[in-house]
Every structure is written in structure tokens, then in C-alpha cells.
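We close this part of the discussion by returning to an individual protein. The sequence in question and its C-alpha cells are set out directly beneath this paragraph:
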Amino acid sequence: MVEPLVAAARGATREPRQPRRSQTERRAESDGRILNAAMKLIARDGAARTSLADIGIAAGYSRGLPAERFGTKVRLLTMLVDSMDAWFAVRVQAALEGKRGLDAVLARAAAHLDGAISSPVATMALHSLYVEAVSVIPELRPHMAALSEGYRQAFVGHLREGQRLGQVRRDINCNHQASIIIGALRGLTHQAFINNATTNLRTAGPSLLKTLNEALRAR
């Protein structure tokens, strides 16, 4: 005990000892690194060509850790989709603050576009999962369909509110229009990733929002 006391007497300082993280915290960090590695690999190579072993190595862990943590590849993919959806939910909630009806429609559409601009890797991974769920990973299809339907229904709600407020034309079918909006957002984003030279979201996005505003607004 002599040295610490002498050091203190001389005015020496020590770095405060960092509290030891709990097992839950360590697991949350490793799970996050695994999902992040999966997202990057899927955006680059697609989900079908990405194995659990590939993900474990890319995350800096063993080949077997993803299987140990998530069980199956489909389970890991659904967790990845849920984590990306949670990230988007926070952004869209902020974008919708104080907005109703048609303004909410446009704000939500803008949030989809801004999300693709802010996180292109996550968006490319999500688009890959949409496509592969239709063909090579059919076990993922119900989860992706539910995600897409949730986005569509959110637009349906805004459109119907807009009709009640007198902002949105009453002659449109809100269900059909919501599907068109989702399709336009997804198609524009996909085209931007395929050929950014002809479709840039930063310039094409505002044009799409203007088109929606003009098509939907009640006269």
C-alpha cells in the first residue's frame, strides 16, 4: 500500500477504472457487430451467397458464433431486418412531428428517400432481401411482406386522414395510392443504386415529392 499513498501525496493522478461491463452489455455489442457485418456482406454479395460463417469472420469473431447466437440464417436475417426497421422508425417519427394528412404523406415519403441517402449500405441490403425473399430465400418472404405492408398501411392512414381534413382528393383509392407511392419510392431508390449517373436521389427525390403533392392535393 506504500506506493499508491506516496503517489497520491505527490499529486499524481490515475485514470479512473472503467466499470466492468455486464454479460448482457457484451452480448449486445457482439450481436450488433454480427448484424452490422451481415448487413455489409448482404449489400455487397446478397443474402444467398453470404453464410453464417462469413458473417462471423467479418464481425471479428469465430465462424460458429452467429449460429450459436441466432440459430439459423433466416433468424439472423429477420433480426437484421427488424434492427434496420427500428432505425428507420426513429427517423420517420422525427420527420412526422407536427404533420398530418398530406403533409405527413410527403414527410414519410421524404423520410424513405433520406434514409436511403443517409444509409445506402443498409438500403441496398434491404432491397436485396426483398428480392431474394421472393425466390432464393422463401422462408423470409412472410417477414418481408409484413414489413412492406406496414409501410404501405402507414401511407394509407395518412391519406385517409388527408381526405378527412380536405387536403387529399376524395376520388382516389387510398389503398391503391399507397401501393403506388411505395412502388415509386422503391423503384426510384433501386434505379439510383443501379445507375446513379441517371438517377440521383438528391435531385430525383424532390421531383417525386412534387409529383405526389400535385397528384394528391385536393383542388
